[in-house]
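User: My advisor asked me to double-check a structure prediction for Sigma-54-dependent Fis family transcriptional regulator before group meeting. I don't want to rely on an old file, so could you generate it fresh from this sequence?
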Amino acid sequence: MTANSPPPRLLVVDDEPDLRTLYELTLMREGYHVDSAGSVEEAWQVLQAERYDLLITDMRLPDGMGLDLLTRLESAQRPEKAIVITAYGSPENAVEALKAGAYDYLTKPVDLRQFRAVVASALGRTGSATMSPARPAPEPAQAPGTAPRVDGAAAPALARLVGDSAAMREVRALVQKVSRSMAPVLIHGESGTGKELVARAVHAASPRGAGAFVAVNCGAIPEQLLEAEFFGYRKGAFTGAQEDRGGFFQAANGGTLFLDEIGDLPLAMQSKLLRAIQERAVRPIGGVSEIAVDARLVSASHKDLTREVREGRFRQDLYYRLNVIRIDVPPLRERLADLPTICRALLERIARDAGVAPAPTVTPDALAHLAGYAFPGNVRELENLLHRALALSNSDRIEARDLGLADITTAPQQVVAPTHAALPESAEVADEALPADLQAHLDDVEREILIKALDRHRYNRTAAGASLGLSLRQMRYRMARLGIDGGTTD
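Assistant: Sure, here is a fresh prediction for Sigma-54-dependent Fis family transcriptional regulator from the sequence you gave:
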């Protein structure tokens, strides 16, 4: 809000005069213009006469529910955001409010510091009374009451959700729909379907798009480090804590925290995460007080979390909090009609990263081969196949032979593992160590060979590539992929 711009207009709806007065005074001290009403019908009459930037309503009113106002606003295509105040200990009401389109919710008794922070967040403002010195300022805000931002920073993320299948159109529509609120989003899909891309699109299309996007793989953090990584710690809290350090929640303040593979969190950590979500605050290890945090929560899992709840591996109350809005990302085998579009987008990015221009195209025969494959690894597997094909292709067209799909599809029928019973009793099987990461091992071998060839030919990429049967384009691509610097063209 600039010095010459009018203050945001807020409407407070509550049937308790004392609470209504408390909210009004708190908000007016923050510089807002505040009107009030005591019932659904009174509020609706005010709304028909005036436009507001934000509606703050109690859940239960004498003549109905605060959610009735949200429904009417939606039907009238009104732009006002809404914050709903619910009874303490009623997560069902909080989830219901978010599903009805509320930007956020508060629970009674309302903490005024949190109240100011949530209102400021809804309006895209920095609440001076609620911000600690260490808290980063939020992103530049769109005008209150305008449609969610889907251009600018949002465009690249949304553009990567390619495909014109019905399933992908639904995913993009949901992304734009949920971007307006703070409602937690649960993304479900098989490994490799692009769940993080969807999460990034949710973040980028929202008013928080210029804020931090913090992605966390919940299954990759040792259990004993989870609390420190999520909530931070204070200097001296344990051996090795040489200084204060913030956690994931603090890093995502004003932005979005993406919890990938949320189903892998141990039950003990699930309980602590639930408290952080409910209280909107975290207590660092070794700290004596909680720190308020303002992070939009998006989670993802390839697991069936309803089954995990039934079998006691996932907390039902946490699942209820996370699964406010669910986005299902379809596997690639269910949207094979999108293959040409996906291949084109992937090859353009792969070629750009490798410094190869123009990007190669996929022949119709190669596309037909791809369409006949089940893709258990989904889009991630397709990307790996195209990486390999670009490295093997000698032209600007990727043929079916470059894909190597015949080897993949026939391998299970051709390879028979030897059994110990087939060996003579006196035979000794060598216990040869196998690489823990085959791809990394092969990359190291390839890198060593390329460096030797470059060194032998004084880093002339054309000559070094020719000695290995590679074109200059293939040589450039492999060097870029393996992080090998230097070399000349001729």
